[in-house]
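Late entry, written up from scratch paper. The run itself happened at the end of the previous shift, but nothing got recorded in the book at the time, so transcribing now.
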Amino acid sequence: MPATESPDYHTAYDVAMQNAENRVFHLLHSLEWQLHTEKKMGSIWNMRCNLMDNYIFRYEGRIPNRTCAEVSAMIHPQGLHRNKWDSQSAGTCIVEEISHDTSVILHKTKGRMMGLISPRETLDLCRFAYDPVDGSRSVVMVSVENEKSPKTAGVVRALTYPTLLMLNPLGEDVKITSIIQGEMYLQGVPQPIIDSLMPKGIASFFEDLIKYAAKDDTKVSLNHNLIGWCGAHLEN
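Output as recorded:
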């Protein structure tokens, strides 16, 4: 059963998620994306944010010979696979289950580039969705506060602006689409360097996932319930 939150938290979370969903699906259909990098494992576009002084990024790639159910099990923080392939992750945990499809999740990342990027964490409200018609899945994320997860000493609490991850069936493959915008809080680092780090991290994340999915010995159990996707784990 979901733990209860105060009515004020529920209201704030509802508003935050509605705004986040409106934002990412508006960005999804924007005509302002410009190609940033194009590789065998996927393409990254960027767009200058009209609200913040940074960039928004969009990733599109494909995972061959996998189903949406298999890929969702690899990605979901409650799944059995995320810690096996995500080289940037220092762990995830469910802080609060708000409803059957919405949770507050703490995402932790390792330090990178010989300490230039210190360990970070984000506390994100995540809403998972599943389309029973075609088996597609999505999750929208945005940073929130929660009294059950105070900031960790020595770890930067970064911000997740409205973010989207979509999994869509594409023949015998899975198409991945993601919209990502974050605040890295790198004081003293020139902005052009900061702008280059974000797409590198995005590319690394999805390359890790695609390589893991391509391994012949990667067996995915679909009998594990996942918040938000629990009714979809045996399908598609």
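The longest helix spans residues 191-214.
(Scratch paper discarded after transcription.)
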